[in-house]
Structure formats: C-alpha cells, structure tokens
Design goal:
Elements: E1 3-8, H1 12-23, E2 28-32, E3 45-47, H2 49-56, H3 60-65, E4 75-78, E5 81-84, E6 95-97, H4 100-113, E7 118-120, E8 123-129, E9 134-140, E10 143-154, H5 161-166, E11 172-185, E12 191-192, E13 198-200, E14 204-206, E15 209-213, E16 216-224, E17 227-235, H6 248-259, E18 268-280, E19 285-286, E20 289-291, E21 297-298, H7 305-325, H8 334-359, H9 363-375, H10 379-390, E22 415-418, E23 421-424, H11 425-428, E24 435-438, H12 443-449, E25 457-460, E26 470-473, E27 479-483, H13 489-504
Parallel strand pairs: 1-2, 1-10, 2-7, 10-20, 24-25
Antiparallel strand pairs: 3-6, 4-5, 8-9, 9-10, 11-17, 11-18, 12-13, 13-14, 15-16, 16-17, 18-21, 19-20, 22-23, 24-26, 26-27
Length: about 525
C-alpha cells in the first residue's frame, strides 16, 4: 500500500479530510490535478457549523487572523431576501470572510505540519478495487503510475472523475442562470451613501441589495467602504468551462444587459462566474470508494458548499480511521452515507427554497419574497432558518434506547471545571478523540466507560446548568449518548453500553498496528 487512504482533490474538503485523518493516525496520499493553488477565489468566506468545528480543532484563531474580516455583520442573503441576525446577541449563524485560496493555503500548511504533502499535477485517470483495497491510475509530469490504498475518497469537484469511474449516478439539474460575482474598487467620482446605496455621477443612485429588471438581477453590496461587491444573474444557454476565467469586460457587458446602462467600475479584485446545479449522488459509498464535498452534492445557492463539504470530511475521517485501525463496529462506515446524505438533503431543501424565492419576476413572486421577509422579522422563525442554513438543525440518527433531546446534536462548547482548572468542550476536542464527560460525579457511569478507555477519553467535570448528567461525544463533535439529569442507573447503564459498542466497537477487539509510508515518499512509477 502506498497509503491508507488516497484522496483525489486538494480543495477545502480534501485538505480537511487529510488533516482529520492525520490526527486520527492515518496516512493519506493527496492528489490534485491542478498544477498550483487557484488564485481566483470561488468562495469569499466560511460560515455555519464548520466554524465551531474548526474552533474545536484549535484552527479558528488562525483562520480569523488570515481573514479579511473575522467578525462580519451577521447578515446573509437567502433567495434575494436577507437573514439579518445583527440585532441578536447570539446569532444562530456566523461567518468569517476569507478568500478560498487563503483558506486552502492554511489547510495545506497544517497538512504539511502533520506530515502530508499535496501531489500537484497528479490526475486520477483510472480506478479499480478489490476486497483488500483500491488501485488508482495516475498521470503526473513524470509520466503515469499506479498508486494503491485501502480506500479512495473523491473530493474532486462537481465533475468528479472518481464518481464517474465508480459508477455512482449524480442525478439532478443545471439551472440556466449564469451568475457573475465581483469585488471591485470604487470608481472615480462614485460615492457610497450612508444607507449603503451607490451614487454615480451622470447615472444617479443604485440601491444596495438586489435590483430586478426584465433582463436579470443586479446585486450590490460592500466588502469595505472602498470595495464594492457586484453580481449579476442572467438566463443564458451558454455552458462555461469551470476553468474559463471571467474578465472585467464580460462583467461590464452583463451589467449593461441587466440594467440597460454602463456602470463605471474601479480595479477588479475578484472576478468569478458559476451556474447553479441541483444534484446529489445516489450514494456516497461504492465499496472502498467514497465521495465528499462537491463530488457528492451541488446546491443551487451560495454560501453553503464549503460548510457541507468540510463537515463531510470530518464525519468520514474518524470512521475510516476506525476501519483502518481494526476496531470499527459493523456498519460504522455505512453511517457516513446515511448521515451525510441526509444532511445534504436538508441543505438541498433550503437551497431549492432559495431558488424559488429568487427566480420569479411577477407580482406573485414579489409577494412571496415580501411575505417571507416579513416572517423573518420575528425571532423564532429567523433563528429556525438560521440553524437550518448553518447545518445546526440536523441530528445524526441514533440507535433506539436513549431518547435524550441532545442525542445526535452538535455538542455546545460548555465551560468546564476539571480538577479545579477551567477547561471547555473545545479544548478537550482538540485531539479529535471520542469523549466521555461525567458532569454529575456518577462513578457507575464512568466504570462502564472505562472499558473503552483506550479509545475514549474520560473526564469528570463540572459545569453550570448542566444539560445532562453525562455525555458521550464522537470525534466529529456529535453527541452519541446523553444521560438525563437525575435518571436512575438501572435505566442508563444498558443504553450507555449500547452506545459505546455501537460507535466505538467491541472493547476487546484487536487493533491493527500501522506502519505508515514515509511522508515524503512518491509512489513507485510503473511505465505503460
């Protein structure tokens, strides 16, 4: 074997997967067909549940330090209306503004510190698998070669070669809208109004937000007081290649078609183009081949793909590690598909709703948007939609037996008192290991957990207003089991044993030693 896991694609999903595998003691081989990191950002920020997960991995502070705005106003587009959380002290969704190339650079630097290097200009051309592993035919500047791993994960985007070679259907639709995004400096003579509108000499005032015409939609916002964010949406029959760059002239032509006049623009800082797709792979696993990120799903709205893809990676990594280390209970790896396919379906639900809110141009569509925005003025529906977009409303399905309301949820970052020292859930989650937290000094529960102490970190801790007497937490920060406050041991002990065995296997199962290949090793070349 050249590696435990071969990863095709070194975007945010593939890099996050490589990082998570390394902290779990697994050696990946990371292949990327592009010769260098893309400098044109496909995304300009990161938001949702993944930010909490990065905090739990002690990575959020580095992300914020590299950000263009670590704490932007929590106001997000939703189908040409807005989710405005700015008046809430604890918004259900937050974001960090960071261009995707900068995010990828941070993730790649961390992967290198952990012992994994990206093999650039290495393109996967063939895949075959058997009961022991996967063989991958790769082409690189030095010629073709074959690499061998126990598993292969396709993180290679919407046009995934791995998905096609594995024979996994990718049903759905491509919408006719072409979306052009830009960040440009303020043109000479133009001024920003106090309300965010743009005053242009000889043209008048352009309203901040979305302007609809018979020919499309113009979006106008601000990255900073001197940098405009301008977008257009038009119906076109043109199919653009992913790698085809967009020019400033193309953007200006699109603006002219949409609003009927020329808009003076300053220096372009970002230019990109995309078309919305609505697709989800039938299955995320085919034997020893798995899919994650854009290879598994495409959503017809912006701002959610990175969150979904990187959470795919976190969910998958510890389950692959369990299989490779020999202690995975039966069916554990299959829960990657059942959980993340269901999470992807939730994301498709709200992004399809955004598409419906965005597309109509008649009075009925305008009334729908107006009514929806009116409902969002109330805190309860606003929070509910925010949790849906962030991914926080999804709960991993749990085995029968323990019905606590927290089961399957993402664990909150509780402040903890451990041996008279202040700690937190986030600090305990840094190593990416399972946790058992006794929050009510229940020695009989700890005694059961001790049988899995070689796989599960066990802590006795105190916390204010504890949500449960004890919590069992998976490496991806989802709660696998929770003890209701004050519930009897007779009721709790059987369900705790079941949860430990369901997620972390037989405590007596043999764990395979691993002999990893050298981290700077290039697979042996096979000429053809």
């Amino acid at each position: 074997m050249d590696a435990d896991v071969i990863i095709a694609g070194a975007g945010p999903t593939g890099l996050m997967l490589a990082n998570e595998l390394r902290i779990a003691g697994v050696q990946p081989l990371l292949l990327e067909r592009q010769p260098q990191l893309r400098e044109t950002p496909r995304a300009n920020g990161l938001g949702g549940q993944i930010l909490e997960l990065l905090h739990y991995r002690d990575m959020l502070s580095d992300l914020q330090a590299a950000s263009t705005d670590p704490h932007p106003v929590p106001r997000f587009p939703f189908g040409n209306v807005h989710l405005d959380f700015s008046h809430l002290t604890d918004p259900p969704m937050r974001a960090v503004q960071i261009p995707q190339p900068r995010l990828e650079r941070l993730l790649e630097e961390r992967a290198e510190r952990l012992g994994t290097r990206v093999r650039r200009s290495h393109e996967v051309l063939g895949v075959s698998q058997d009961q022991d592993g996967v063989s991958v035919e790769v082409h690189c500047p030095d010629g073709p070669y074959r690499a061998r791993g126990r598993y292969l994960v396709g993180c290679d985007g919407s046009r995934s070669k791995v998905r096609d070679l594995a024979g996994i259907p990718f049903p759905g639709a491509t919408y006719p809208e072409v979306n052009r995004l830009s960040q440009v400096t303020l043109a000479k003579g133009a001024t920003r109004c106090d309300n965010g509108d743009l005053d242009v000499p000889g043209l008048g005032t352009l309203r901040a937000g979305f302007t609809r015409t018979d020919h499309g939609v113009l979006g106008l916002g601000w990255l900073t007081s001197e940098v405009l964010m301008i977008s257009t949406t038009e119906n076109e029959n043109t199919a653009y290649e992913d790698d085809a760059p967009m020019t400033l002239a193309e953007l200006q032509d699109s603006i002219r078609r949409v609003i009927g006049v020329d808009l003076p623009l300053g220096q372009p800082l970002r230019l990109s183009r995309y078309q919305f797709q609505d697709r989800q792979a039938d299955r995320y696993r085919e034997g020893r081949v798995l899919l994650a990120g854009d290879a598994a799903h495409q959503f017809p709205a912006t701002g959610v793909a990175l969150n979904a893809g990187m959470l795919d990676a976190v969910n998958l990594a510890w389950k692959l590690a369990a299989e490779l280390h020999g202690w995975a209970p039966p069916g554990l790896l299959d829960t990657y598909h059942s959980e993340r396919h269901a999470a992807g379906a939730r994301t498709l639900l709200h992004t399809r709703a955004q598409m419906a809110l965005r597309r109509g141009h008649d009075p009925a569509a305008e009334a729908l948007r107006e009514l929806f925005q009116e409902l969002l003025r109330d805190e309860k529906p606003l929070r509910r939609i925010g949790a849906l977009v962030a991914g926080d409303d999804f709960r991993c399905p749990q085995p029968d037996g323990n019905k606590h309301a927290l089961n399957g949820a993402f664990v909150p970052d509780l402040t903890l008192d451990i041996a008279q020292e202040t700690s937190s859930i986030a600090k305990l989650m840094h190593p990416g290991r399972p946790l058992f937290l006794d929050l009510a000094d229940r020695p009989e529960l700890r005694e059961i957990a001790e049988g899995w102490a070689h796989r599960v970190d066990i802590h006795r801790a105190g916390t204010d207003d504890r949500p449960a007497d004890a919590l069992l937490i998976r490496p991806d920060a989802h709660i696998a089991w929770a003890a209701p406050v004050g519930e009897s041991s007779d009721a709790l002990l059987p369900t705790l044993r079941q949860a430990l065995a369901t997620w972390f296997g037989d405590p007596q199962s043999h764990e395979e030693p691993h002999h990893y290949p050298a981290t700077d090793r290039t697979p042996v070349m096979h000429t053809r």
